[in-house]
Write a structure and sequence with these properties.
Blueprint: E1 2-7, H1 10-20, E2 24-27, E3 30-36, E4 42-44, H2 56-60, E5 78-80, H3 85-96, E6 100-104, H4 112-124, E7 130-133, H5 141-149, E8 152-154, H6 161-175, H7 177-189, H8 200-217, E9 223-231, E10 236-237, E11 258-270, H9 278-286, H10 292-304, H11 320-326, H12 330-337, H13 373-397, E12 403-412, E13 419-427, E14 448-449, E15 457-466, H14 475-483, H15 490-500, E16 510-513, E17 516-519, H16 521-529, H17 540-553, H18 558-587, E18 597-602, E19 610-615, E20 617-618, E21 621-622, H19 625-632, E22 637-642, E23 648-660, E24 663-670, E25 678-679, E26 682-683, H20 686-693, E27 698-704, E28 711-719, E29 724-728, E30 738-739, E31 742-743, H21 746-753, E32 758-764, E33 770-780, E34 783-789
Parallel strand pairs: 1-3, 1-6, 6-7, 13-14
Antiparallel strand pairs: 2-3, 4-5, 7-8, 9-10, 9-15, 11-12, 11-15, 12-13, 16-17, 18-19, 20-21, 22-23, 23-24, 25-26, 27-28, 28-29, 30-31, 32-33, 33-34
Length: about 800
Amino acid sequence: MVAIVVAEKPSAARNMASALGGTKGRYAGTAYEVTSLRGHLYEFVQPHAMVDSSLADTYQKWDLGNLPWNPQDLSWKREPQKNVADVIKTLRSALGRGDEIVIATDLDPSGEGDLLFWEAIDELGFHGKQFSRMEFTDESKASLRKAFEQRRPVKSMQDEGDYRKAMYRSQWDFLSMQFTRIATAMGRQAGQDLVLRQGRLKSAMVSLVGDQQKAYDAYVKKPFFQNRFRDENDVIYTNPDEPQCGQKGRVPQQYAPSAVVLDSKADKKTVPPKLLDLASLSSMLVGKNVKANLTLSTYQKMYEDQVVSYPRTEDKTITPEQFKDLAPLIDAIAIVVGVDAGLLTRRHPRATHVKTQGAHGANRPGPKVPSSLDEVERKYGKAGRLIYEMLAKNYLAMLAEDYLYEQQRGHVEKYPDFVGVANVPKSPGWKAVFDPDAGNDADEGEGNESGKGLGQNAEPFIFEGANKRPEHPTMKWLMKQLEKPDVGTGATRTSTYSEVTNDKAKYPLLTEKGRKLRLAQAGEMSWRLLPGTHIGDLRLTEKVYADMRDIAAGTATAEERLAVVADWVREDIVTMTKNAASMRAELGLKEQVGTARAEGVWQDAPGGPKKVVFKKIWSGHEFSDDEVAKLLAGERISFEVKSKGGKPFTATGALGVGDFKGRKFVGFQLEGLDKPTKWSGRAFTPAEVTALLAGRTLEIDGFVSGRTGKLFGCKVRWDAKAKKIIPDFGSDDEPPRSWCQVTFTDAQRKDLAAGKTIQGTGFVSAKGKTFDARISWKVEGGKKKIVPWFS
């Protein structure tokens, strides 16, 4: 009998093989073989591929009339993820050799580890095997060996509560695609052709940032003036009942200098900051100009090399075994990050940071200690250096002593209602290792840090203050807001944040400038549509997690709890429709209901007449009813439009099937793309067309920049597959064909390429001024380019 141990990912498989004595062998009397998944090997297909063919059009179209979906229509069919064919092949082979299949994926609160295991079993058809479950708190050798020896028999997929709840969450999130379609439809009705993505976490982020941004922008400073006292050590004494005045001149001058009375002294302490999760780490790094997506990609590389721990952990503490495993490496880690090992005197586990529950443990240094931070930077860049330094110091701070200070309380002798508090540092403890709030004016709760404590005498003064301005939204602020209601895990928050702030995305929801966050165009529209909706309610995740607990316990079924989504979709359509009216008014947009899409029976459709829906606007031109009728009849139409550069031209075409990033769609297809006719304001000659169609690259002058209107020349070729002109503006191998609106002769380019300096005339600057100059082609600023010389 052979037990096939299925780990969640290759790194976990390596740990299991190390614990059991190899990839194959015998342990505790059982023959075994270790294999692994690579996270989710499968994903749901698109909605229209999950339903009967008679419903496919309904589920593919984004029209509101096709919502809500009926979960009973969906087959929940899956397809392999990209680039996992080899993993699936290896897994299938291993499972076929086993008599028992051991579930050795992660144990996490969401049940995700069980889901990705069972979806693979389901798709590969291995339900008839004998199953068991390894349950381990971490991946230490002792934990893995114990889990293998005490593995729990499993009857079937549906008998596992963790699978049922994880499958429910996965299905719920799939159904939430409907809310994206609602919001997108509202945007299109306002003339904005954007995809407004909604989801439990995305919508929560948009709602929080939008509300905070509004509060920040609406802030009106309201100054106030109040009597207070200050002693010679700059400790302030205040009376909470002292009246505030709107003008400085109205503050009564009724107080005189007085001695200070020390009321009490008390020794206090604070423990080290909690261990980091990926969201906290990324928030700190954003303040050092490291984007969240770079943190994610860099951390993943470092994890694969075992320099840092598993990234996507939900834990904020570590287990005793994990503490024990890292203990022999502490001094070496301290040397790498420049921490005095003499400060690390608490070498036993802290109850606040080390607990028996958990899986991967909080983010921390890995088992492979680099020789230096310079080595880390050479291999992983500046981001890698910052990641390791921050993780290591945060972990080492746990091993330092508590921060100790004396809190002194006192009052003004003549006016005892005026009270002052000073915190006098006694021992820096962990702050000498890692202080995340250093430089942020942080204090120890009540009072201010003072090296001298309370003074002897206090002088009255008029304090000028103001109502506090709401904090500008930042990643750090946002992550704290999401953590309060427990919306998402640290890793999920970070990956979603990276997605919604990606400035290369077509429709980013948030923009990030330095540390500050603001709503992008799509984000602002989403924010205005979300008030009062179910998908925009921060309590939604709490509701989903409560459902998950009930489903895992067997007191509810996924079918019962998913049924409510249809009602929520109906209600959110009504709510977003009302919000859309306000959104259009506030943003100055006009309602375009019924104009964004056209539909009817396309007579010339491939395979015969077919009902279709297509965009009614093309390049700013809205098709008339007559044009729509002609397109559906299979006729060609022509109309006047402007190019991206603002140049008018006649567009001629018919209805056809296009392709956008692999997705087929029906829409107006421009004719003339079967051959090159014109590019950047210059028509090709018949000879040039023939040459381009033959695959030749031509050097051509006289093109016009659509942005500046300036002439330029370059190499061009025709991409027959993409049906478009591909320009080549040159490289370091040869000089450009033109510069500042002057086209070089072949002789001039030859001289430039030879390193000579030539005289040029008639150049035109960016501001439109004509000038003459001597020019050369040389390296400047790390790139070879034309460099002018003026005499």
